[in-house]
Amino acid sequence: MVDDGRTERSGLPASTWRHSLLRIASACAIGIFLSFVMPQIVGDDYASRKAARVAAPFLGALYHADTRDSKITVLLIDDQALIDAGTTWPPPYDYYADVLENVANYAPRAVFIDLIFSSARAENVQRLVDAINKLKSKKTKVYLAASLDEHGKLSVRHELQISAARTVAVEYDPDEVDHVVWEYPTTNFGDHKEHPEERRETQAERPRSAALAIYEDLFGEIKDKREPLALTWGLAPVTDGLEWTLAPAKSQLHAASGEAAHAHNAAEKPSLYCNENQSTVPLIVQTMLHAAIPDHGKPACVFHHTLYQRELLYPDETLSARHHQMFDERIVMIGTAFDYSNDIVVSPIQGRIPDIYLHAMALDNLISSKGEYIPAVKFEPTPDWPHVRAFFLLLTGLIGVAAVMLIKENLLEKWEHAYHARCVARARARATTVHTAREQRFYRVQDKLLDAARCIGLKAGEIVVSVLLVGIVFVAGQKFFHVAYLSAMEVTLYALVSEWLEWNTKLVGWFNKSEETS
């Protein structure tokens, strides 16, 4: 039978608005239903995290690098720095005093030390206190990482508690499913989280996270900071970032004989563990492939400019100019990058990196958004504004799903009609030229293979186009509604799956048949 352009899937022409709307509504209903049911059956949804991780480089490419290039510098202490200082881990307090004294030679706006000084060692900490006070006298704000005690209060060694430094919380919870850090706490941490109503009453009294404290002290108070920050990880890598290499025995570069650690000539340094490609499109593609297939390629290199503490030991003219550029009027965030360290976070773009980059990225998010950060809320029926906005973002994502379906209905159906018309014409032509049974079998097999290849190609193209289209809609929704996309990704992913597998088509067909028989 010759196709007349109307695919009779449900008893109605596929191009009618009624049929299209039913398909859209059914796919969305399936998506919402499965997003609630599947985690209850198979546990938390790993598929949505995987999809979000693949989409992260695309979103990261849209994240501007203005803040990182003008306001934030990461200063790393590594194994080689301890070797050069003739010490081991943990180094004495005087070693950290030396680090702060070196930084005080410049004019940073703030200094954050991501090391918790809580152990009651016998050694004196007065030099460290003096170094903190020296920075304070130069109008540099100093922040010390602190642990939370059983009462949810920040705690460091007593002498440092009464110094000029401000204590901040550094706890965070990686995702329980994929261990990626998707969100960053503001004033509520781990086991010390309270009921939302209680958080409203005690918000001003609660300990602040490192990024939040630095932002509020330097740029202004954030009014509503109840919800954690939904992190957007920037993609564009710096050329002076983390120096870990591919060789396990030499996991880091080290400076020697006064040479700069960051060699700009690629021939002078071994292959980095990460992808430092400065071309955006290839970097997006390669990072997305690595997210989808971990053994394929490399993650992107870190987003923030980095100095190693050992570089400060070689003050030649070239390095001195670089140090002024990296420190003057900057927020200096000091962390560690030791071999075999547990101070590691997992970024959806950069993979495993020292956790100081988490605090740098969170602060970057706050500064870039001018404090109007994206709250990390889940899609659930909670009557407050963040959750209402999350619901609108969900609707935005489902608009993308609807667009995919309408394209299929109005474009692919025409292609199908044209294809079947060509098949009919070719069959009629062969009827006059093909006579032997062998030739007929050959052409039948050929037609089946071509048809299978066409179907696979169309389905793959449908998946790629729909993912790109929904991704674009998500970005627009995120910018407009100012909401994280991870939770809404679950619903949209299941809605797309229902369209790819045509569950909704079968559901609409069953509905229409039931309606006709009644």
UniProtKB/TrEMBL annotation:
<keyword id="KW-0812">Transmembrane</keyword>
<feature type="transmembrane region" description="Helical">
    <location>
        <begin position="21"/>
        <end position="42"/>
    </location>
</feature>
<keyword id="KW-1133">Transmembrane helix</keyword>
<dbReference type="Pfam" id="PF05226">
    <property type="entry name" value="CHASE2"/>
</dbReference>
<dbReference type="InterPro" id="IPR007890">
    <property type="entry name" value="CHASE2"/>
</dbReference>
<feature type="compositionally biased region" description="Basic and acidic residues">
    <location>
        <begin position="190"/>
        <end position="207"/>
    </location>
</feature>
<keyword id="KW-0472">Membrane</keyword>
<feature type="transmembrane region" description="Helical">
    <location>
        <begin position="456"/>
        <end position="474"/>
    </location>
</feature>
<feature type="region of interest" description="Disordered">
    <location>
        <begin position="188"/>
        <end position="207"/>
    </location>
</feature>
<feature type="domain" description="CHASE2">
    <location>
        <begin position="51"/>
        <end position="401"/>
    </location>
</feature>
<feature type="transmembrane region" description="Helical">
    <location>
        <begin position="388"/>
        <end position="407"/>
    </location>
</feature>
<protein>
    <recommendedName>
        <fullName>CHASE2 domain-containing protein</fullName>
    </recommendedName>
</protein>
